[in-house]
Amino acid sequence: MDQLVKVREAHQKEVLPQNIYDTINERFELVTEGIARIEKASGAKYPISYVEPSAILTSSSDMSFQYGILFARTIPVFFEEKFQVMIQISAPLVAFGLKGTIHAILAHEFLHYIELIRKISKMELLSDEISSNLFENTYADSTRLFEPRAVFSDQTLLTHITKKFPTGFKDYKLEDKTEKLWIAKQLPVTNVALDSNTVKLSAESLSKVTIDPMLLQKILEYEEKESKLRKKKLY
Fold it and tell me: Smallest Cα–Cα separation from 160: which of 174, 147, 178, 148?
């Protein structure tokens, strides 16, 4: 898949200005480097990914003045009766994010991906709950993923993840740049509901999903490593 196809389309339609388009193209190598790094550190292939040419905003449903900027999302989809998982990377992340931040976010989404596949393989994904409160959702997001040390062997990458996701992602400089250099300049914005990423699949749909046996084997290895790490904490 051409990961920048939507960015080129937005530029051709004059939705993205030339300077932003050039910046995304120049800095996209940080994304490809990050994906290669994650594949090497995890021993598994990264899912399909693409750059969304907009800032992705989400807000609470409780009418409070509270919203968040999503720099990447893991999106499960059925396409032509086939189940796929796609990583949507926001253009502001590519344009303004530091290398360590980009790699940490890509790695975090990879953890979402393998957790999603793990649940599907065990028929656990009939209803995946998500909170409509941003704080609660951040907490849930950080507690239902694989322990990064069980998945990645790259110590520098693990440090980036730990720094960026202590209890949910926070990067004030990146958020500030996104506010001032993207949203304030009225560049494309996509608003999504917090529960729009909720996965609800029927048992029949789950039974039709085929998963790469090599990926399932890697997930079993991650589970074993995670179990050993937990035992070390206990003793």
Answer: 148
